Prior knowledge:
By secondary structure, this protein is α/β, with parallel strands linked by helices. The protein has a single domain (4-231), classed as Class I glutamine amidotransferase (GATase) domain (Rossmann fold, 3-Layer(aba) Sandwich). Helix content is 28%, strand content 24%. Helix 2 (46-53) packs across helix 3 (85-100). The chain starts with a strand and ends with a helix.
Amino acid sequence: MKPIIGINCDYEDEGKQPCSFTYRNYIDAVIAAHGIPLLLPLIKDNNDIKRLLKKIDGLLLTGGNDVPPQRYGEERHKKTVCVHPDKDASDTTLVLAALRMRKPVLAICYGAQLVNVVLNGSLIQDIPSEYASPVIHKALQNEQYTHPVTIGKNSLLYKIVGTNRIETNSTHHQAIHKLGRGLLDTAHTSDGIIEAIELEGYPFFVGVQWHPERMTDYSCHAALLSALVQASQ
């Protein structure tokens, strides 16, 4: 049987009817990997989230805006655009419950940053103004930018993609600063920015700073979604 992969939704309520949603490429990538996508709306009650998690086999944490910096004890940078408070509360509760239940997790961009903060890590709030680097991590709007990422050979990520160097898209202005509890840096760019994380001793957790769901025409990126689905069997 195909495993059910939960996908956390984004949320908007400004200038429109409030809505929970996700971009179709997350859904299509899970389907292509032979999983069944199930969109998870905003739910803040811990017991309700635990009951919902029992109905799914794996979890895909999507990209989005920024984790509120008060969660890691910092003032908000002028470039930081926080997720909606309701999404922040829902996502935080979801991650804590999923990790306690040891669900297979693939965390993408904001999703990886969220897990890092939930595990008491911190973030670089704005790479261009806080971290001197020749590498472009966030291209101009509507432009696709890629850069190479070096992957540690002892990592789960290396086993999944089968190489220690890949080209990834890059659309983030924030990055992991201090690693959260139990997390390992498994890939980085030439400037030292962390591009992938794993959770030591956990059955299946991979967090990546790029968006593999937008690059599934390349086998190394499609392999990440396939690995999540296989781990969720």
